[in-house]
Amino acid sequence: xxxxxxxxxxxxxxxxxxxxxxxxxxxxxxxxxxxxxxxxxxxxxxxxxxxxxxxxxxxxxxxxxxxxxxxxxxxxxxxxxxxxxxxxxxxxxxxxxxxxxxxxxxxxxxxxxxxxxxxxxxxxxxx
Length: 127
Hints:
With 127 residues, the chain is mainly alpha-helical. It is 72% helix and 0% strand. The chain is elongated, with a radius of gyration of 16 Å.
C-alpha cells in the first residue's frame, strides 16, 4: 500500500461519509422491507441497496422510473467508492485525493437527487 498524503486521508473520510449518507437514505427508502425501521436495514452490509431496490418497484408510477434510475446510479457510485478504496492496497492502484473527492461528489449528488424526489413524492397533493 502506498503512503497516503494528509489530503488523501481527508478525501477518504469525505468519501466514506458521503457513501454512508447515501446508504442511510437508501435504508430509509427500503425501510418498508423491514417493518418501517431504517436502522434495521442500515445495520446489515449491503441491505440498504437491496431493500431500496425492492421498495422502488412500488413507487408511484409517475416517479418509478426515476427512483429506479437513481437507486441504480447509487449502486454504481457505491461500487466505484469501494473499488477506489480497495485500489489503495494494490501496488498498481494509484488513487489520490482528487479521485476520492470526485466519487464523493457523485455520491452526494445522487443522495441529493433521491432526497429531492422523495420530498416531491411525499409532499405531492393526493387526489
